[in-house]
Amino acid sequence: MNGRVDYVVTEEEINLTRGPSGLGFNIVGGTDQQYVSNDSGIFVSRIKENGAAALDGRLQEGDKILSVNGQDLKNLLHQDAVDLFRNAGYAVSLRVQHRLQVQNGPIGPQGEGEPSGIPIAMVLVPVFALTVVAAWAFMRYWQRH
Known about the structure:
Helix content is about 25%, strand content about 30%. The chain is an alpha+beta fold.
């Protein structure tokens, strides 16, 4: 492991329908209360269980919300962003930035749940088995001569 931590940043359009508990998530950030240093954007701080966002499944805690119904969220005070969400209507379109942490460089083409390399056991077990067989053969040889 080289210890390097990389991030893959993706953007996605998420359409939510307001439910009984609103859109089903809380936000942090804004120009007056930065959540991430050097970034006054609006971020998802919590997904409410069984809320619209949780039922949809795509919005995640830590996601940055870039726009609401096409309105950019740059350079907004926190309360202005809250008001924008509250007045966004029943059907809400969010432009969201996901930032996924990836350790040790780029992602290769892998299947879901597929390991990224050969497990150490798959190397050590055959090597150990060959060593035991070689030691046994060596001992048998020396016992006969």
